[in-house]
Amino acid sequence: MAQAGVVGEVTQVLCAAGGALELPELRRRLRMGLSADALERLLRQRGRFVVAVRAGSAAAAQERVVLAASPLRLCRAHQGSKPGCVGLCAQLHLCKFMVYGACKFLRAGKNCRNSHSLTTEHNLSVLRTHGVDHLSYNELCQLLFQNDPWLLPEICQHYNKGDGPHGSCAFQQQCIKLHICQYFLQGECKFGTSCKRSHDFSNSENLEKLEKLGMSSDLVSRLPSIYRNAHDIKNQSSAPSRVPPPFVPQGTSERKDSSGSVSPNTLSQEEGDQICLYHIRKSCSFQDKCHRVHFHLPYRWQFLDRGKWKDLDKMEHIEEAYCNPKIERILCSESANTFHSDCLNFNAMTYGATQARRLSTASSVTKPPHFILTTDWIWYWSDEFGSWQEYGRQHSFRKTWSMAQLKRFAADPNMCLPRM
Fold it and tell me: Compositional bias (Polar residues) spans (predicted)?
């Protein structure tokens, strides 16, 4: 079976099973005979699959769980009473409320101006582009729910802070966001049934908000697993490894200042390999006891030498090349004091014959908006003219970003790219 066919079957099996399966169970359900090594290689395709580690049924056991990932989204400009997208985007033109289960406009006896069909020329083209045109409607909705954050109702962060039945939320029962334990949705609530925060989407307060969106009872019952999948996909997708085109890192975003720090304890391996945001702004209170990496840049290029990671020279030059999807490898040296140079391969993440890696700060989607120097990751696709277009942004074919513009932006993140 061709590679695309294998990827398509794995995606379909995952979506039919609620978006995620433990690795052994996934292999068992596949129709084709796929060896463990072949499946491992297949799952390295970033943008299609994410492998997360979750607590197993046995005490202290951990299971590797495979999740179906996709850059596919609903077009926001197409929503509303006056859809504003002219059809040149790479997102689905589909009514948001129909995806929830029942369009609230039709229920009220009104006409909905948003598309309710997946078989339009635009939607069929988008589904083929993303390689998911073989999925059933329910499987496609599962893929969208756990990948498109716009579809999931927002969780009230103030409810999850402070004391009292509504935490520090000033709106209390009038709050339009969901009042539910965020740690429960991440699979990390250590209090269980004794938690002071709600673990129930079906309580009267939350259910009323969900029913206003037109969510079916079946969808409401699946929300805990959907939020858990979305959380794992968002966090695991921020791992700092080279992703083949059309995935292009935008560099770092300059944000408003933040204060305070977080405990260095109970960090995952991925978090332990992140560059400490507080150290960059010279405010890490843990100093040498911090479990994150202390470095002066929001990225760090290294190679493995006899079991130890060593820095490469001219990291700004390496980062600029890495941000250009047309560059697969460059020649670079270990340090300014050595004459030894070798090839750094971005796709294989190797430096000569040894392993290479790229450390970075946490992804911007995992931190509040006021955090500074988080890493922004943006999807691009190459159009028929060879120009790179950002997924989900409306473009004119005569107004495209050239590779020269992207390269200058990679060299200077503060430079503004032209707006489309």
Answer: 259-268
Q: Determine the Cα angle at 362 with ends 359 and 364, to 5°.
A: 135
Sign of the C-alpha dihedral computed for residues 385, 386, 387 and 392 taken in this order: positive
Arch. (CATH architecture) of 270-360: 2-Layer Sandwich (3.30)
pLDDT at 247 over 50: no
C-alpha atoms less than 13 angstroms from C-alpha of 383 in its C-beta half-sphere? 19
Between CA 16 and CA 26 the distance in angstroms is 11
Question: CA-to-CA distance for 73 and 123, rounded, in angstroms?
Answer: 11
pLDDT bucket at 227, cuts 50 / 70 / 90: very high
Choose which CATH entry (1.25.40, 1.10.3210, 1.20.120, 1.10.10) describes domain 1-68.
1.10.10
Contacts 24+ apart (CB under 8 A), 107-114: 107/214, 113/80, 113/81, 113/82, 113/83, 114/78, 114/79, 114/80, 114/83
* Cα–Cα distance, 297 to 329 (Å, whole number): 22
CB 306 within 8 A of CB 355: no
Would you give the distance in Å from CA 87 to the centre of its chain?
Answer: 25
The more confident residue out of 203 and 415 is 203
268-295 pLDDT, tens per residue?
A: 555 668 899 888 887 787 888 888 899 9
Can you tell me the distance from the alpha carbon of 280 to that of 261, in angstroms, rounded to the nearest whole number? 12
For residue 356, the model assigns a pLDDT of 92
Does this model's pTM top 0.85?
no
Q: Where are the beta strands (DSSP E) in 235-328?
A: 247-253, 299-305, 308-311
Residue 190 in contact with residue 172, Cβ under 8 Å? no
Sorted by where each begins, the domain ranges of the chain are 1-68, 76-131, 270-360, 378-394+401-419
Strand order in 341-345's β-sheet? 308-311, 299-305, 354-360, 350-351, 341-345, 329-333
What span, in angstroms and rounded, lies between the C-alpha atoms of 150 and 123?
Answer: 18
